Amino acid sequence: MALPSRYRTLLSETLDLDDGDSIQLVLVPDLESACLSIYPLNQWQLILKKIDGLANTSGNKQFKRWLLGNAEVVEADRNGRILIPPRLREIAKLERALALVGQSTKFEVWDDQRWKAANGELPDMSQVSGIEEIPL
User: Fold this and answer.
1) Considering Cα of 42, then 133, then 127, then 101, what sign does the dihedral take?
2) 74-91 per-position pLDDT tens digit
């Protein structure tokens, strides 16, 4: 999958990369939808600190094993391409055409048909809390 140049530029600036430095990303299965979440490595490290702080219950251990066991660090090549491992493609039900969706501090990768089916219409705004506080 190729990252659009506008995202590569934004990531390079955000991560304060020099020319020639590679963009490192972490791919993890999304916990709510059939898609992958892609985090810049520095953002993922912040999440890891919070995960490490979870109580050591059996449920939390199982969650950590699943999430961290399926996390994959990837490096974008100089053309902004990343390789999504087959096991993550399977978990997220990714077929051929993909949709890359920006989500503030992460990206989501969806199967294009699944993205269109799940997100083709504007959400019911009465179900969105706190939106009135945002000047859109």
Assistant:
1) negative
2) 998 888 889 999 999 999
Homologous superfamily in CATH for domain 5-121: Transcriptional regulator MraZ domain (3.40.1550.20)
User: Is residue 22 left, alpha or beta, with left meaning phi > 0 and alpha meaning psi from -120 to 50?
Assistant: beta
Q: Where are the domains of the chain?
A: 5-121
DSSP annotation of 106: E
Collapsing DSSP to helix, strand or coil, 18 comes out as coil
DSSP state of 73: E
The pTM (predicted TM-score) of the whole model is 0.82
Interatomic CA distance for residues 28 and 38, integer angstroms: 7
What are 41-75's pLDDT values in tens digits?
989 999 999 999 999 999 999 999 999 999 999 99
The one-letter code for the residue type at 82 is: I
Q: What share of the chain is helix, strand, coil (3-state, %, to 5)?
A: 40, 20, 40
Report angle CA 70, 33, 127 to the nearest 5 degrees: 145
